[in-house]
């Protein structure tokens, strides 16, 4: 007696930017689409305004500690978009010309700022990305801008995917937005996919892929317990003609590594060339009297920058003075004001001018008393893509240590001199700006406890033209494994020097017509051409001529 296996046209693994965008367009085009998401599916009213263990904060995050690098990412329907700060800048032109550690251009020849701009436009339309004016900047953002100006630097409002008419300035964006002000994928692409018949299954963690005799794929998954992610309550298999992998740069390569025994050899770049987006965090402990005296800024007695816990917004202001393409590689970076909530921020902050331990002990206890006067500056530099994933754990992307959030992963990251050069320059710049005339005392976060850290993992299955240093071709298809496409941050070739959500999303939009063509070749009745999930059509109408030109060049 044989057991029938469930079938779908396209199986999407993950529901963040890469997964949601693909799911929407494929479903809107007529394909049967199933989305498997390892995390829970929380409604707006389930996003809690606290950072307690067991709250929405720990339920929707995945914090994986590796060897020299720890990764903080989303773990829920909507993925990183639910927990991100909605900063949506486009990558600078020079990023696409980077050589990095391989001595040649990392990005595919077909992808540069000019060719990606129409796809950036689609995202701006779909996610309502706007550039706020100075009146919409948070107090902390304005303070950062004033400090930059005082030091002879410039600062700019940061493009963001936030509806300011709905935003209540609670700044609990990292725990999910209760008010639908932040344009998470749960309010656009995913509802659009559902409206066109896609199915989204939360708490389904994909383990590996195998092939059928007909050349389709079988996707093997475990069902994760809703409260204790270490427990599995079942397992299953779904058969699909195409697979879109969008589990994130810390999970997609692990699934592919585990699949190698069933699918055959993976490209050399699967699980290699990982980038932490060159990220670095600095904590400035402000002298409120100096801030008032020199910058003329004050919230009044008892109303310090974070006096109401998380008052304000996420990042609203950035300094881009060093995003100059004429500067040498590894010396270009952005500096962004950021509110980081109690927890990791208070643990990893170091004590300026410490005589004892820098991140714990009596002196640390003293500076914690003033955490409401802290200002966090987020540096995004150019690293060397030095991360490598070792053998995969038995299940999932890490060995789960706690019921939720925390795991031990197989990523090894040993920063090169180039990476340290970028970090050190950015650290020195932050220190120079904020310590001028005694405004603050500045120290970078410690690497001693969890190594380097990133909230924007990239490049672990990157696209490129060179088969030896890239896992994907310029259509986002996995080399040697037709019918598997990768559309998450792992496809981005290297550090971007800015927040990467906009670029990840634009690359996913760009990949969709290729996925549709592959689906059609497999006999799936699907077309490309849906408007933005918001209903706008300008972005679509701008890219359709590009696709026709591409088809003509290919002789289709």
How would you describe what is shown here?
With 556 residues, this protein is an alpha/beta fold. The protein is 25% helix and 19% strand. It has 13 helices and 19 strands. The strands form three sheets. Strands 1, 2, 6, 7, 8, 9 and 19 form a seven-stranded mixed β-sheet that branches. Strands 3, 4, 14, 15, 16 and 18 form a six-stranded mixed β-sheet that branches. Strands 5-11-12-13-10-17 form a six-stranded antiparallel β-sheet. Strand 3 and strand 4 (69-74) form a beta hairpin.
The N- and C-terminal alpha carbons lie at a distance of: 45 Å
Please give the largest β-sheet. 7 strands, mixed
How many beta-strand runs? 19
Alpha-beta content class: alpha/beta
Helix content: 25-40%
Low-confidence stretches: none
Compute the number of helices. 13
Arithmetic mean of pLDDT? 92
Q: What is the strand content?
A: 15-25%
Rg, please?
Answer: 23 Å
Mass-distribution shape = globular
List keywords for this structure.
seven-stranded mixed β-sheet; single chain; 556 residues; alpha/beta
Write the layout of secondary structure elements.
Layout: E1 6-13, H1 17-28, E2 33-36, H2 56-59, E3 61-67, E4 69-74, H3 80-83, H4 113-126, H5 139-150, E5 156-157, H6 189-195, E6 199-201, E7 204-211, E8 217-224, E9 232-245, H7 252-263, E10 279-286, H8 288-295, E11 317-319, E12 334-338, H9 344-348, H10 362-368, E13 374-380, E14 387-389, E15 399-400, E16 406-413, H11 417-434, E17 440-444, E18 452-454, E19 484-486, H12 501-521, H13 538-553
Parallel strand pairs: 1-2, 1-9, 2-6, 3-16, 4-18, 9-19
Antiparallel strand pairs: 3-4, 5-11, 7-8, 8-9, 10-13, 10-17, 11-12, 12-13, 14-16, 15-16
Helix pairs in contact: 1-6, 1-12, 4-12, 4-13
């Amino acid at each position: 007696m044989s057991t029938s296996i469930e079938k779908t046209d396209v199986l999407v693994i993950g529901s963040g930017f890469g997964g949601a965008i693909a799911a929407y367009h494929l479903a809107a085009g007529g394909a049967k689409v199933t989305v498997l998401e390892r995390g829970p599916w929380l409604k707006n009213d389930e996003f809690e305004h606290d950072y307690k263990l067991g709250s929405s904060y720990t339920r929707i995050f995945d914090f994986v500690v590796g060897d020299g690098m720890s990764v903080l990412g989303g773990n829920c329907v909507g993925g990183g978009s639910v927990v991100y700060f909605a900063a949506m800048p486009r990558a600078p032109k020079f990023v696409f010309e980077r050589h990095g550690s391989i001595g040649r251009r990392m990005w595919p020849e077909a992808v540069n700022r000019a060719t990606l701009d129409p796809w950036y436009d689609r995202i701006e339309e779909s996610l309502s990305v706007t550039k706020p004016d100075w009146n919409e900047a948070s107090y902390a953002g304005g303070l950062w801008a004033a400090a930059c100006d005082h030091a002879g630097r410039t600062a700019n409002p940061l493009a963001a995917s936030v509806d300011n008419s709905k935003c209540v300035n609670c700044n609990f964006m990292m725990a999910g937005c209760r008010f639908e002000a932040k344009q998470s994928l749960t309010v656009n692409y995913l509802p659009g996919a559902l409206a066109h018949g896609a199915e989204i299954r939360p708490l389904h963690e994909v383990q590996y892929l195998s092939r059928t005799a007909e050349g389709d794929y079988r996707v093997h998954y475990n069902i994760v317990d809703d409260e204790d992610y270490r427990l599995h309550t079942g397992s299953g298999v779904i058969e699909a003609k195409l697979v879109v992998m969008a589990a994130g740069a810390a999970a997609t390569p692990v699934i592919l590594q585990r699949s190698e025994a069933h699918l055959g050899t993976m490209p050399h770049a699967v699980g290699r060339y990982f980038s932490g987006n060159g990220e670095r965090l600095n904590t400035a402990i402000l002298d409120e009297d100096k801030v008032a005296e020199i910058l003329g800024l004050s919230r009044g007695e008892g109303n310090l920058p974070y006096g109401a816990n998380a008052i304000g917004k996420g990042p609203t202001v950035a300094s881009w003075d060093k995003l100059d393409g004429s500067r040498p590689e590894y010396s270009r970076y952005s500096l962004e004001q950021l509110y980081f909530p109690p927890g990791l921020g208070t643990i990893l902050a170091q004590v300026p001018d410490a005589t004892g331990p820098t991140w714990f002990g009596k002196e640390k206890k003293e500076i914690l008393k003033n955490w409401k006067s802290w200002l966090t500056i987020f540096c995004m530099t150019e690293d060397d893509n030095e991360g490598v994933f070792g053998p995969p754990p038995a299940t999932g992307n890490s060995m789960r240590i706690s019921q939720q959030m925390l795991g031990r992963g197989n990523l090894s990251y040993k920063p090169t001199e180039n990476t340290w050069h970028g970090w050190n320059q950015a650290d020195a710049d932050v220190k120079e700006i904020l310590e001028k005339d005694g405004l603050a005392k500045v120290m970078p976060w410690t690497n001693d406890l969890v190594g380097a850290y990133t909230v924007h993992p990239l490049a672990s299955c990157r696209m490129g033209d060179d088969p030896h240093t890239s896992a994907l071709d310029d259509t986002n298809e996995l080399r040697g494994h037709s019918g598997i496409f990768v559309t998450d941050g792992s496809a981005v070739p290297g550090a971007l020097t800015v927040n990467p959500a906009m670029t990840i999303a634009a690359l996913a939009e760009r990949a969709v017509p290729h996925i549709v063509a592959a689906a059609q070749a497999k006999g799936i009745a699907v077309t490309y051409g849906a408007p933005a999930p918001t209903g706008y059509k300008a972005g679509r109408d701008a890219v359709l001529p590009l696709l026709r030109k591409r088809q003509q060049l290919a002789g289709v």
